[in-house]
Specification:
The structure is a homopentamer of 368-residue chains. Chain A is α+β, with helices and mostly antiparallel strands and 368 residues long. Chain A has helices at residues 2-15, 63-70, 85-95, 99-106, 162-169, 180-193, 195-215, 219-251, 259-324, 340-361, and strands at residues 42-48, 53-58, 74-80, 113-116, 121-130, 136-145, 149-154. The first copy, chain A, has a seven-stranded mixed sheet, sandwiched between helices.
Chain lengths: 368, 368, 368, 368, 368
């Protein structure tokens, strides 16, 4: 039960995570309100072109301004942890981010979306992955795409971007020959790829549940269906708007995203559609499982009732007969006839057999 | 139970509040029909530009005409209470409001909407907040946006605009440097921000209910689910049309709303979408909880039936046997054999054990 | 029960009223087939301009041609009752109505719609009002709008237009200063206003039902939910297409409807949307009530079962024990020990107490 | 039960009739595969203009070519029965039909649709009517509309076009003065008019069912609801695409359909919309009836349980008491006190009364 | 039960087959990841024009380049089995396929879609057919359409294209006279035709289930409904996107698909719509069957309860009476009256009859 509860709690936390932290009263829009438990920011830089690769952790935010000015190559600045407001404010200045844009990135959670600003694109997405205990972890990632940089922001440590990093480190990889837009695509694709293991895990659970319910419907099964529905709802809320967001990026006429990368984004779009299709199918399957469960339960109650009814219907009349001849009337002639007792036993046996035949005919005995 | 009933009543009043007060028979359109329990109007003025701030209560409506004529700065005239028709009529004249516009503002409730008139915009919205007992209070606010003024009208005292007022009072705030359109945006944003605590409260209640039902399904739980559904329906009706209304403001080509403020309105739009998304998710969750509740109930009925069936199936046959040997026939040989009594007891014990084994095999005893 | 049945029957008649009367076989389209129970036509004229008002009943249909020719002012010809085909045919000729248009008006019921013909507009709507016993009465009204006239046709006597007539009689009313299009608007508005009392009545009934079911679920409650759903379905069918119909009038570029009246029609549109919103909400509420009802019923069955199980589980074993010592074996040593009887009573008491404690632990006694 | 089964089977055959007969393997598209049970074709000609009418059965298909060449007037060639492939092939040649068009007409069933070919329009529709036993019969009718002819094809004998034929026979009818497009309209209209009696019949059955379930829910009622749902599904599938099909005809800019006939087609469109509206409403009503049925059943089970619980709760404790004093202990002092027996009877009576009062308080006795 | 389980498992495997095989970590997009159990590729060539036909198996992939260069005629290269990556890579080079295109074809499963590349079209579809045990087999087929070739790729051996091959072999067939676009159409059409037998099989199963449930609702029936729902979900996911995909092909302005073939594709579109319509109808029918099943179950539980209640209500009071006169009080005057015993029997008989009459009046006996 405990593991069930943990699972359940995870589902719940997912769903209720859309808990907006309001800026302090009187604050102007654009006020940054990072989560109180967000760790101190760690900033990692990957800077590359076809021939060179620079990868390191940045200690002083101010450095970034210099890097951006140098101009050549693509820079990926990856910021994890919002625990220091000064750093965030500094980032806003260096990249010249619109107050609403940085607010959307910091004041999580936001609905996934793509927004087009004058000097950059903002793509807000929700990353999911399986945690240590196969629970679903979910976090908002904000991707700022500029001419020669990609800036990613997330609240907690840990991401699903290692495949992207490995591809950058391979000097012969296509990613090294392309611009910041291709990097942004690779990151978005990695986020969407991260949904598949989660969806598969839910599919496996549904499959196990299906077999468990076919075998024996239990209250625990019911709760697990509810938990899965819960989690599917949360996933759907995360995936659905990403279709629209990728579409916005694809459609926008702009210099920031090249036509070639737009073709790759179409692939992302297909993945988002496929993921939400699968989630919808699982939702319908879960609903069908619920019906199956309820009907199995009704079926079992029906069977319990049949056993009770058969037992009671056979023995209650017999007990009544025994009660009759247990009465103490002075004048009960049958009591004094020697064959009355065995005769009564035979009658009782015939009544019992009659009831059994009756129930067989009704199909309550001997057939399922 | 009483607190439940109060809660419930609140939900109901919300839902049924769309009770249109028809103008008296024979009245032309544009007739004002304020609610009979509306208190006398209190008019507050905030008038500001980057350097000055004037904040006071206006006793004589006529004064406003003079203020509007002076021209410079932004004036926020906030009218609460419709208890005096003469005042309302006077306001209509001063601001030169279209009869249908003022009718929509006074004859509450209306569906949230934005309407474009020649000399002003009318934005009708529904403000919600948590009352003293954490019940949901809801009220219509009508926002008239003109060149240099914002006029807000509401039926009862009390609002969610204090953050806006505080920002105006801070001389360095951005709001002081911008026009009436930004003020209107700030007010609309404050209304939408007001939905979050209410939605969160419902989320918390759903979460508690979920745990309560997992622990022990009770009729009170069922009623609470119904109440929450009720309230979610009411919230949905309030939020949904606001998406469309904000959209109308954003799209309209006009001098009254500057491009910069339109970008801010996009943020409002996102908030409205996020709020309605969350409400939809809660509605599905509530439906799933209902299923969980019903299945728990079926499960429990099933268990009750099992206990009954087991008790009855074990003891009814035994009682019958005891009844047999309680009969008063003269010729019952078994009665006179000394080991018959202990033998019968043993037989009875074996029958009882047989039934227990049978029920164990069926899984009714010893497994959940 | 009788009042329930009457109510129910009303709901049913509403729903099935879409019973098309086919023209006799072989008839060409445009054949008029008035309802057989339609009373003889009564024709009322209101003819007015800003200064004059003429109001009377027209006995001879031919008169109308003359009135229309006179040209000045606005004429409202209100025809109630289709009991005389010659009159209807004469009307068609005088107003030069397209065969399909007059057919739609006479061969009720039609789906509400607006149709644009060359020389007139046809607006078909469905009027509802509460009858004497607070049952819902519904009837089709067809509004023909020409340059200087409005022709309204309905099958039975009785309408919701008295407020419009009163406004016409007031010489200072706005309606007197405007054209036929404003009159048509006023009539359409009166029809839509007529939905509010009906919707409110259903809202009140839902509210009562809600409280009744919270108190005690009864089969009558179930039937009343069904009846309300029935009526909401009928109302929805009537309101929904009116949105589209008003929209058609608003959008159509034409001389017949002036821009000012189009603004007023926008208000009608809002009312139609608000009405259908409320109906949808009520439908969802009714569905939620159904769930509440069913769960209450399950809860009650569960409670009944518990009482039975507790009674049976306590007394069946005790009765068995009593049965044991009621047997007539010669050798039952316990029967002859003086303390056996009280001891047995004590044992029985302990068993009963044990069962009570068991059921308390299971939560079946002493908690709800 | 038999009539129910027949009814049911009819519903099923309807639904599963979308059983596509595939052309033999290796056949090119355009291969004709008429139903094996289709009778030999009967070809009827109606050829008319304002003054003349020729009506006869055509024995030799080749004749038609000559008729078409003559040019003047409108020819309606009505082919019923596909039992002879040579005839069909000949028709294809004479009318110069596209292979896909004739394939759609012959290889029934197809989804209703309108298709625009170069030299003709193809309108595929589904005709329904009530059979002898008031069962629903349904068949595909394909209407080819050319410049001066209408060709209708259907698989079995029997149609709903007699009203159209009668109108053609009346020399003064409008249909005689108009072209082939008006004839096609008249046929489409007759098909749509044919839905009304069927819909009405289902409405009547729903109404009867409603009353039957209010009176006494029976398993037969449940099956009848299922059958009606079945039939409504089939009707919906037939009507829904006809809206789109009529719309295609109305929208298409072409010489084949004159503007006047387009106005008449708008009327057809309204009828199709009205029919599908009614079907949707009936579907919702049937779903509500299902709920009503299930809740009635639960209610009845609840009542049965109450009777059992009341009987058992009153008599089981009393029987136990009787059992106590039926024991054979030597030392049972109460047995020898003369007033013990009447006292016990009084106690038993009091206990029984106590239980009755308890159940009255719980509302199980004396209230519904 | 075993056949049921196999059936069920098949349904499940269908649904969960959307299990994406991710490329190895660090791989660039375009990495091919064929299923590990895919057999070695078998490549078949059909090359034809109106006069010639060449049909053979290709052993060496390199050969294809030469064939394509020769230019005249249409070549169909059919690749089944992805078990050799080198072959796949070689194919990519020969046909100059975009990395994303070949990735979509190899890394199954993908959602059905049509994609327009510069030098070819990619049409991904899902082929279904009935296996040996009438289970549903499903596989992805990717169709590349170039100027003079069609390349089809699928993971496992076996397809539904034999009718197409037969038509190519017939020298007089239309397919021999047309280009590669017509061949692609014929293949797409064959895939869609393959859905009909599967849909029909499900329709037959639903029909059988319907009759089985009307006869006797069993838990196996419930599971079969669930399985069918499962399979319908899977089919829907496969068919639905094909409508969109065919539409993309039809709409695209391009040289690759001629206008004549576009007309044929319209026919494919109609088939896809018809198939998804039927699937939707079956889904609703399955839902209605579920209701029917549950209500039958409730009905049966109700009947079981009635039998129990009737038996218990008749005999429990009688047993109590017998218990009374079985007590051993010294002073029970009735015991010594000679007519008391027969009188009691008469009273018991009357009570039993009274109960029977009571239950008849309630309709529990003698009516269903």
């Amino acid at each position: 039960m405990t593991s069930l509860h943990r699972q359940f709690a995870v589902g719940a936390s997912h769903l209720f995570l859309q808990r907006k932290r309001n800026p302090p009263v009187g604050a102007r829009p654009g006020t940054l309100v990072p989560a109180p438990d967000s760790p101190p920011p760690v900033i990692r830089l990957m800077r590359y072109d076809a021939d060179h690769l620079e990868e390191r952790t940045i200690e002083d935010v101010g450095e970034i301004a210099g890097i951006l000015e140098r101009g050549e190559g693509v820079s990926w600045i990856d910021v994890q942890g919002f625990g220091d407001e000064a750093t965030l404010e500094r980032l806003r200045e260096i990249f010249d981010l619109h107050p609403l844009a940085i607010e959307d990135a910091i004041n999580t959670p936001q609905r996934p979306k793509a927004e087009i600003y004058e000097n950059f694109y903002l793509y807000i997405t929700r990353m999911v992955r399986l945690g240590e205990h196969r629970e679903i972890c979910s976090e908002q990632v904000s991707i700022f795409l500029g001419k020669s940089y990609v800036l990613t922001l997330q609240e907690q440590y840990g991401d699903v971007f290692d495949p992207v990093r490995k591809r950058i480190r391979q000097s012969e990889g296509m990613i090294r020959k392309r611009g910041a837009d291709y990097l942004a695509y690779a990151i978005i694709d990695a986020v969407l790829d991260g949904y598949y293991p989660v969806i598969e895990m839910l599919g496996d659970r549904l499959h196990e549940l299906e077999e468990a319910i076919l075998e024996r419907p239990s209250p625990a099964g019911m709760r697990r269906i509810h938990t899965i529905r819960h989690e599917l709802l949360a996933l759907r809320r995360a995936v659905w708007p990403q279709r629209e967001a990728v579409n916005t990026l694809m459609r926008e006429e702009s210099d920031l995203v090249s036509p070639i990368v737009r073709q790759y984004l179409r692939d992302c779009y297909d993945h988002a559609v496929q993921a939400s299709d699968t989630i919808e199918t699982f939702r319908e399957l879960a609903a069908s499982l619920m019906d199956l469960y309820l009907s199995s339960l009704s079926q079992r109650t029906n069977e319990v009732m049949k056993v009770l009814t058969i037992m009671a219907s056979i023995f209650i009349p017999l007990t009544f007969l025994a009660g009759i001849y247990g009465m103490n009337f002075d004048y009960m002639p049958a009591l004094h006839i020697w064959w009355a007792y065995p005769a009564l036993l035979v009658v009782m046996f015939l009544i019992a057999m009659g009831m059994v035949v009756f129930f067989r005919l009704k199909g309550w005995i001997g057939r399922s």
